[in-house]
Design a protein that fits this description.
The complex is a heterodimer of chains A (954) and B (201).
Chain A lengths: L1 E2 L10 E10 L2 E7 L3 H7 L6 E2 L6 E2 L12 E4 L2 E5 L10 E3 L26 H4 L8 H11 L15 E12 L3 H12 L4 E4 L7 H4 L6 H15 L3 E4 L2 E7 L3 E6 L2 E12 L3 E3 L12 E3 H9 L3 E2 L3 E6 L2 H12 L3 E7 L9 H8 L3 E3 L2 E7 L6 E6 L7 E4 L2 E5 L2 E3 L2 H5 L3 E5 L4 E5 L5 E3 L9 H16 L8 H13 L20 E3 L4 E2 H9 L5 H8 L12 H12 L3 H4 L13 H5 L7 E2 L3 H6 L3 E5 L2 E6 L3 H10 L2 E4 L4 E6 L3 H8 L12 E7 L5 E11 L2 E6 L4 H12 L7 E4 L4 E7 L3 H6 L16 E6 L2 E6 L8 E7 L3 H12 L5 E2 L2 H10 L34 H10 L3 E8 L10 E4 L2 E12 L4 E9 L8 E6 L2 E8 L9 H4 L1
Parallel strand pairs in A: 2-8, 9-10, 9-14, 10-11, 14-28, 16-24, 18-19, 18-24, 19-20, 31-33, 34-44
Antiparallel strand pairs in A: 1-17, 2-3, 4-5, 6-7, 6-8, 12-13, 13-14, 15-25, 21-22, 22-23, 26-27, 29-30, 32-33, 34-40, 35-38, 35-39, 36-37, 37-38, 40-43, 41-42, 42-43, 45-48, 45-50, 46-47, 46-49, 47-48, 49-50
Helix pairs in contact in A: 4-6, 4-11, 7-8, 8-9, 11-12, 13-15, 19-24
Chain B lengths: L9 H6 L3 E5 L2 E6 L3 H10 L2 E4 L4 E7 L2 H4 L7 E7 L2 E6 L4 H12 L5 E5 L4 E7 L3 H8 L9 E6 L2 E8 L2 E7 L3 H11 L6 E2 L2 H5 L1
Parallel strand pairs in B: 3-12
Antiparallel strand pairs in B: 1-2, 3-8, 4-6, 4-7, 5-6, 8-11, 9-10, 10-11
Classes of the chains: A alpha+beta (954), B alpha+beta (201).
C-alpha cells in the first residue's frame, strides 16, 4: 500500500500540507485531509486490530465508520473508528485489544482453543467448578473486548445544540442533496445532516471523470448557495424520537433538531459476504477501496481480484485499473455481465478475466490475503485460485432504513431486490434514493427531489403535487437496478466463515445455535451474539437472516429482521449528556471580596466569602470593634396588599396582627405536617407593605409556598421575590452605630430605632431598608440596598469604618458567632422530622390564632409530649465533634450533633445536638462518638454568649 | 463619594478593558478598546452587550390586561402572563414612566407596580450569528418581534427577539456566569463584547 504518484482530482488530501502523528510510538507522516486510516495505510500499516474473540488480524474493511476493524484509541478516547477520524497534528493513536501489538498478538493463542468457544459458550462453559469463575472471568475480560478508558485522559468537553428546521434531510449523498434542494426550493428551511466530512455520498468517491461525480459537485454547489439550507457535515443522526426530534452527534456536540418533516436519504450499508477466511486483512469492500483511491489517493494493493454482484462493482474494478492496480480477475455473481458498459470495455481492453456466475469461496494467507479461490455461485464446477494482495467485495448492501424504523416504519423484504424496504412510514417521514431501494443513477436524483418536494408539501404556499407526480412517472420509467445477490453465503470453502466480524461469530456458530433451538431471529441474535457487536448488525444482519432462513426452510420475509433502536451508531455518554449548565450566583459586592483575597466558597449556588483572614481575628473585630459581612444571599420577599396579615398568619406559626409599622419579627414556617421548613424575619414597612427575609436556600420554596397557598383564594396580596433586587450587609459590633451614623442622618438612637426595629432611609445617598437584628449576637444593623449599588455601598461602609478598624468577616465566622448565641439554622440544626416544639421554638407557636399551616400536627405532637430536644453543649476537653456524629447512651444512638465549632472568644468547643428530652438540662453529661473517639460534653440550655442579649439589644 | 450604579458584570467588563462613562447615574461601558471590531462583530458575527442599566417596572394584578395599549415614553411593555408584565425602560425615562404608571394605577384594586430595575441583569446578543450561539445554550424558540420565557444556560430568562438578535433579562445574580456562558458558547463564532459606541454608530 502506498500513495498514488498522482492524486486524482477528486482527492480530499492536500499533499502540500504535511501533518505528523504518533501510532504506537511510531511517527507517521500524513497530509491535511487524511484520515488516520488512510495515513496508516499509505505508510504500510495494514493490520489495524485484532478480533474480539479469536484475536485474528483484521484490516481495513468498510471504510465508512461501521465495521469494528479499525477501532483504536485516539488521544485517550477508546473505540474511535480511524477510517472516519481526520488526522490532527500531534495526535496520539494506539491500538487496542492486542498484546503487544496487532502485528504480533500473544492473545492469538485463543484461536487454538476455539473448541471452548462454541455458540453461547458463556452459558455452557467456565461456570464450573464455581470457585474457578473469578479466574476465568478475569481472563475472559482481559482477552475479549474493545478499548478501555484509561482514566488518566482529562475529560473532554461536550456541547449541546438545539436546532429547528422545517425539513431535516439525513444523508448528504446524491438523493439527500436533491431532497434538500427540492425542499429548499419549495420554501422550507432545511437542515442537511451528513455523516462524512464531505457532501456527495458514493457519487463523490467515484472516478472524477464519472457522470455521478460531476452531478454531485454541481448539486453541492447549489445546496451551498441556498441560504435556507444548513449543512452539518461529520454529523450522524443517531435517533429519531417522538415529535420528529432527531438526535445528531457531531464530534463532541450533540445536536437536537426538531423537524416538521424528516427525509431519510442515508443510502445503503455495504456489507461483506460469507466465505472461508473472509476476515483476512486485504479483503475490503468496494466503497472502502473507492474512498482510498479517489478521496485519499492511496493504493490499497498491487494485484486485486474483484468480486461483485452489480454494475457498481465494475466501476470499482475500473477505478483500480485507473490507479495502476493490476486486476487479476473480475468475478460477478450474476449470470450475465453487461458488455455495453464503459467499465466492462475497459476491463476487457486491459485483459481482465471476466467471470460471470462466480464468487469467492475462500481466501488464503496468514497475516494478509495471498490468494483467493473463486468458484461457481451454484456450487458445482471447478474452482480457480488466484494470487492477489487485495480482494474487493462489492456485493450490494442494505438500505439504511434504521431511522424511519425508529420512527415506526416496518421493513418489508422485497424478494426480487433482495433487500428490506421501509413501508408504513411514520407521519412526516420520507425515504429517498438508495435507502428507498432506488439504485439507478438518474433515479436516485429524481427520487431525492421527489422526497424533498413531498416533505415540503403544505409547509409553503405553493403546491408541488404536479411536479411530484411527474417525478414519480419518470421514476417508474427508469429501469430498476438490483444490487444484491440472491445469497450472502458462498456455497462452500475452507477456513472460518465469519458472519459477524464484530463478535467473531461464524456460520457454524449460527447453525449450531439454530440447531440448539434458537431459530427465531431475535433469540438467535441474543444466544449467538450475532449482530450484537459495535456495528449493531450493519455488516452481518442480512447474512444472519439468510442463514437462519436457509437452515429453517423459511423465506426471508418469514424469518424477519431485528428491530432497530437508537442509537444508530455508538455514542459516548459525554455526547449524550452534553454540557450541563450549573449556573452560579454572585453577590453585588462580589468583586470586593475577590479584591480582599477572601476565600470564596460555593454555598447553595452562591459564591460567598468564607473568610478573609481567620475566624479568631474576624470574631474579635465583631466582639470588640465592628465587622462587616455580606448578607446579600438572604431570600427577600416583598408582600403588598390588604390581606398580607391573613397570609402571614396562615403561613407562619407566629401571630402578625399586632406587628407595628417599623417593627420586625422573627417568624417560623412549618408545612402541613408541622415540620419546620424555613425561618427568617418579616418587617412591616407600611400599612399594607411587608418585607420578608428567608433562608438563603429556602427563598424559592417559600415563594412557591406562599403563591400556592394563595392560589384559588381571593386574598389581595402581591407576592414578589425581590432577592435579586437587593444587596445586603450586616454591620455588627459595639461600634456599628458609629460607623452607620457617619453615613446617614437617620436617628439611630435605641429609642427611635430599637432592637427588632426597621426603617427605610438614605445611607450614603442610597435608599435602603435597615433592620436592627442580631444574628451574630452583637449590636447589628442589616442594611439592604438596591443591588446595583453593591460595590459603592461596600466601599463607603468600609471607608467609614476605617477609623474603628472595621473588618470584613465571612460565613465561617458568622457560623461561630451565631452558635455562641445558640441561633439555629433551619436545615442544618433541624431536619425533615423536626417540629418547632422540639427545636426550642415553642414560644413562637400561637395556638390562640384561628389557624395556621401545621397547627393540627403541632398540636398533636404537643399532646403526645416532646421526646427529643435541641440543646447546646460544651465539650469537656476541647474536642470539636464532627457534625452529624452520634450522641450515644448505653451503646445506642440517642441523638446527633448538628453544629460544632471552636469559639475563639469563649475559648471553648461548643455545639448544638439533639438529645433525649430527659437529658435537656444544664450540666447533663452526654457522650458523643466522633471519628472513632468518645467525646464527653455537658448540656447548656441557654446561649453560650450574652444569654440575656444585652449586647445585641444595646 | 456619590452613589454610582453598576451592572452585575461591571467587574467582568473591567477585566475586558471596558471604557466606562457615567450616564443617568450608571457606569456604562462605551467600548472595549476597538469600536470598529465591535461594530463588525455586530454586523457580521456576534457581540454581547450589557444592558444592565435598562429600567424595569413590573406590573402585577388585574390592570396588566389594560397595559398593552398604554403608551409610555421610552418604554416597551412585555406581557409575561395575563396578570404579570414588565416595562423595559430607557434609564432617562424611568422616573417619568414610574410616575405615569403610578398615577394610572391609583384607584385600581389588586394591581401593583414594582420597580425591579435592580433585580435584573440584561444582555443583548447581536449579530447574524446570535442564533447559532443561543442554540448552544437553550432550546428556546421565539419569532422576530416576539418574546418568551425560557431557560438559557440553566437560568430562567425573559427572551426578546429583534431582527438584530436577542435580548435577555434574568436574575442579576446570574450576570457573571451568563456572561461566561455566552462568551464561551460564542467563541467559535468570534464573539466579542461590544459597548454603547458600537451600538450607536
Ligand atoms: S458484524 Fe457488527 S455486529 Fe455483526
Amino acid at each position: 500500500m502506498s500513495r498514488l504518484s498522482t492524486p486524482p482530482s477528486s482527492t480530499l488530501v492536500n499533499r502540500s500540507k504535511p501533518l505528523v502523528f504518533e501510532y504506537n510510538g511510531r511517527r507517521i507522516d500524513a497530509c491535511e485531509g487524511d484520515t488516520v486510516a488512510s495515513a496508516l495505510m499509505a505508510s504500510g500499516v495494514d493490520i489495524l486490530s485484532r478480533s474480539f474473540k479469536y484475536h485474528r488480524p483484521r484490516g481495513h474493511l468498510c471504510g465508512e465508520g461501521h465495521c469494528p476493524n479499525c477501532m483504536m484509541n485516539v488521544d485517550g478516547s477508546p473505540n474511535v473508528r480511524i477510517c472516519s477520524e481526520k488526522v490532527c497534528n500531534g495526535m496520539v493513536v494506539k491500538h487496542q485489544n492486542a498484546i503487544p501489538s496487532p502485528e504480533f498478538d500473544l492473545l492469538a493463542i485463543t484461536q487454538k482453543f476455539d473448541f471452548l468457544m462454541p455458540a453461547g459458550f458463556y452459558y455452557k462453559i467456565f461456570h464450573k467448578p464455581r470457585f474457578m469463575w473469578p479466574v476465568f472471568e478475569h481472563f475472559i475480560r482481559k482477552v475479549a473486548g474493545l478499548g478501555v478508558v484509561d482514566g488518566k485522559t482529562p475529560p473532554y468537553r461536550y456541547e449541546r445544540q438545539h436546532l429547528r428546521a422545517d425539513v431535516v434531510v439525513v444523508g448528504g449523498g446524491p438523493s439527500g442533496l436533491s431532497a434538500a434542494l427540492g425542499a429548499a426550493e419549495a420554501g422550507a428551511s432545511v437542515t442537511l445532516v451528513e455523516q462524512d466530512s464531505f457532501l456527495g455520498g458514493h457519487f463523490r468517491f467515484q472516478n472524477p471523470e464519472s457522470s455521478g461525480f460531476k452531478k454531485v459537485l454541481e448539486l453541492e454547489k447549489q445546496v451551498r448557495a441556498k441560504s435556507n439550507i444548513r449543512v452539518l457535515t461529520g454529523a450522524v443522526a443517531f435517533g429519531l424520537y417522538e415529535g420528529n426530534m432527531l438526535g445528531v452527534v457531531q464530534g463532541r456536540r450533540t445536536v437536537r433538531i426538531r423537524a416538521k418533516r424528516v427525509v431519510v436519504a442515508s443510502g445503503i450499508l455495504e456489507r461483506p459476504f460469507v466465505f472461508g477466511n473472509n476476515d483476512l486483512p486485504g479483503i475490503m469492500l468496494g466503497r472502502a477501496v473507492q474512498r482510498l483511491l479517489n478521496l485519499y489517493g492511496v493504493q490499497p494493493g498491487k494485484r486485486a481480484v474483484v468480486v461483485g454482484s452489480n454494475d457498481r462493482a465494475l466501476d470499482v474494478a475500473a477505478d483500480l485499473l485507473h490507479a495502476g492496480v493490476e486486476v487479476a480477475a473480475y468475478a460477478d455473481q450474476r449470470e450475465r455481465i453487461n458488455d455495453s458498459l464503459e467499465s466492462v470495455k475497459l476491463l476487457k481492453s486491459k485483459g481482465v478475466a471476466l467471470l460471470p456466475a462466480t464468487t469467492a469461496v475462500s481466501a488464503d494467507g496468514k497475516m494478509h490475503i495471498r490468494s483467493v479461490t473463486l468458484g461457481p455461485v451454484a456450487g458445482r464446477g471447478e474452482n480457480i485460485r488466484l494470487d492477489c494482495d487485495l480482494l474487493v467485495l462489492s456485493v450490494g448492501g442494505d438500505p439504511a432504513i434504521h431511522l424511519v424504523q425508529q420512527g415506526g416504519a416496518r421493513g418489508f423484504f422485497e424478494e426480487h431486490r433482495v433487500e428490506f424496504i421501509a413501508k408504513r412510514l411514520g407521519e412526516g417521514h420520507f425515504v429517498a434514493g438508495d435507502s428507498n431501494g432506488v439504485h439507478h443513477e438518474d433515479s436516485i436524483l429524481l427520487d431525492g427531489r421527489r422526497a424533498g418536494l413531498a416533505a415540503a408539501q403544505g409547509l409553503g404556499s405553493v403546491d408541488h403535487a404536479a411536479e411530484i407526480a411527474d417525478l414519480e412517472s419518470r421514476l417508474s420509467a427508469n429501469p430498476a437496478v438490483v444490487l444484491n445477490p440472491k445469497t450472502m453465503v458462498a456455497p462452500d470453502g475452507s477456513g472460518k466463515r465469519f458472519v459477524c466480524v464484530c463478535e467473531d461469530v461464524t456460520e457454524k456458530d449460527v447453525c449450531d445455535a439454530i440447531r440448539e433451538g434458537f431459530d427465531g431471529i431475535e433469540t438467535l441474535k441474543r444466544y449467538s451474539t450475532v449482530s450484537m457487536g459495535p456495528c449493531q448488525g450493519k455488516m452481518c444482519q442480512m447474512s444472519a437472516i439468510g442463514i437462519c432462513a436457509r437452515e429453517t426452510n423459511r423465506t426471508i420475509e418469514e424469518t424477519g429482521s431485528t428491530v432497530s433502536r437508537p442509537p444508530f451508531i455508538p455514542i459516548t455518554l459525554g455526547a449524550l449528556t452534553g454540557r450541563n449548565y450549573h449556573p452560579h450566583k454572585t453577590v453585588p459586592t462580589h468583586s470586593r471580596h475577590a479584591a480582599l483575597n477572601a476565600k470564596v466558597i460555593s454555598l447553595g449556588d452562591w459564591l460567598r466569602p468564607e473568610m478573609y483572614s481567620n475566624p479568631a481575628e474576624e470574631s474579635r473585630a465583631v466582639h470588640e470593634r465592628v465587622g462587616l459581612i455580606d448578607v446579600s444571599t438572604l431570600g427577600r420577599i416583598d408582600l403588598r396588599g390588604t390581606d398580607v396579615v391573613k397570609l402571614l398568619d396562615k403561613v407562619y406559626i407566629n401571630s402578625w396582627g399586632n406587628l407595628k409599622v417599623g417593627r420586625t419579627r422573627y417568624g417560623v414556617m412549618c408545612d402541613d405536617t408541622g415540620i419546620v421548613f424555613d425561618d427568617g424575619t418579616c418587617a412591616r414597612l407600611g400599612d399594607q407593605h411587608y418585607f420578608m427575609t428567608t433562608t438563603t436556600s429556602g427563598v424559592d420554596g417559600v415563594y412557591q409556598w406562599l403563591t400556592s397557598w394563595m392560589a384559588g383564594t381571593s386574598l389581595d396580596v402581591c407576592v414578589t421575590n425581590v432577592t435579586s433586587g437587593y444587596g445586603g450587609v450586616n454591620i455588627a459590633g459595639p461600634r456599628a452605630k458609629e460607623v452607620l451614623g457617619k453615613l446617614t442622618s437617620l436617628n439611630l438612637d435605641s429609642k427611635e430605632f430599637p432592637y427588632m426595629g426597621c426603617v427605610q432611609g438614605q445611607v450614603a445617598g442610597v435608599p435602603c431598608i435597615l433592620f436592627r437584628i442580631g444574628f451574630v449576637g452583637e449590636l447589628g444593623y442589616e442594611v439592604h440596598f438596591p443591588s446595583f449599588y453593591g460595590e459603592y455601598m461596600w466601599d463607603v461602609i468600609m471607608d467609614a469604618g476605617k477609623e474603628f478598624d472595621i473588618r470584613p468577616f465571612g460565613v465561617e465566622t458568622q457560623r461561630i458567632l451565631r452558635l455562641q448565641k445558640s441561633h439555629i439554622i433551619i436545615g442544618q440544626d433541624t431536619d425533615a422530622i423536626t417540629n418547632p416544639l422540639e427545636a426550642n421554638l415553642a414560644w413562637a407557636v400561637k395556638f390562640d390564632k384561628p389557624d395556621f399551616i401545621g397547627r393540627r400536627a403541632i398540636f398533636e405532637a404537643k399532646k403526645q409530649g416532646i421526646k427529643k430536644s435541641l440543646v447546646g453543649f460544651v465539650t469537656r476537653h476541647g474536642e470539636v465533634p464532627e457534625e452529624g456524629t452520634q450522641v450515644m447512651e448505653n451503646g445506642y444512638s440517642v441523638g446527633r450533633v448538628t453544629s460544632a465549632r471552636f469559639s475563639p472568644h469563649l475559648n471553648k468547643s461548643i455545639g448544638l445536638a439533639w438529645v433525649p428530652t430527659a437529658r435537656a438540662k444544664d450540666g447533663q453529661p452526654i457522650l458523643i462518638r466522633s471519628k472513632g473517639e468518645w467525646v464527653i460534653a455537658d448540656v447548656v440550655t441557654h446561649p453560650f454568649y450574652d444569654p440575656e442579649g444585652a449586647r445585641m439589644k444595646g | 463619594m456619590t452613589p454610582v450604579k453598576r451592572s452585575s458584570v461591571h467587574h467582568v467588563q473591567a477585566h475586558h478593558h471596558a471604557r466606562f462613562v457615567e450616564r443617568n447615574g450608571w457606569e456604562i461601558a462605551t467600548s472595549y478598546g476597538d469600536v470598529a471590531a465591535e461594530k463588525t462583530a455586530i454586523q457580521n458575527g456576534v457581540a454581547l452587550v450589557d444592558l444592565g442599566w435598562l429600567g424595569k417596572l413590573e406590573c402585577k394584578g388585574e390592570w396588566v390586561a389594560s397595559l398593552e395599549s398604554q403608551p409610555v415614553e421610552g418604554a416597551t411593555f412585555k406581557k409575561l402572563i395575563p396578570t404579570h408584565g414588565m416595562w423595559i425602560v430607557q434609564p432617562e425615562a424611568l422616573d417619568a414612566a414610574e410616575k405615569k404608571l403610578e398615577s394610572a394605577l391609583s384607584g385600581k384594586s389588586k394591581s401593583y407596580l414594582i420597580n425591579s430595575s435592580s433585580a435584573y441583569a440584561s444582555f443583548d446578543l447581536l449579530g447574524p450569528k446570535a442564533a447559532d450561539v443561543l442554540c448552544k445554550l437553550s432550546s428556546v424558540q421565539v419569532a422576530v418581534g416576539a418574546h418568551t420565557q425560557a431557560t438559557v444556560g440553566g437560568v430562567h430568562c425573559l427572551v426578546i427577539r429583534s431582527e438584530h438578535g436577542f435580548q435577555f433579562h434574568f436574575g442579576r445574580e446570574f450576570g457573571e456566569c451568563m456572561w461566561e456562558f455566552f462568551m464561551d458558547a460564542g467563541m467559535e463564532f468570534g464573539i466579542r463584547p461590544a459597548g454603547l459606541d458600537a451600538l450607536a454608530s
